[in-house]
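input
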Amino acid sequence: MQLVYPKQKQEMGESGDVTVEGGSFRIQIPFLTQSRAPGLLGVREKCDRKPKTVIVTLMEDDQEYDRVSLDLAKDFKMADPSAYALRSEILLHRSPSTPPVR
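output
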């Protein structure tokens, strides 16, 4: 799973890996909302840094089977002041003969 920010072209933001168990998975990827990390003086930038897109990729042994791009504003809701949650589950398919991953 990778986070993509509006001003990034080819560069990706934070990412995380998770092992699928029982056909489903959950993952948390912490990200800073500050425009940049605090400087030496401890001055914090404004808190407007937010991912635009979340890319979820199903892989096994370096082979990509499925990928979905989600829009943070449309596909996620704020679960609490520090976390977002999907509005509805997504399905990823390994192959036509295997059950989907949720």
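quick obs: DSSP finds one helix and five strands in the chain.
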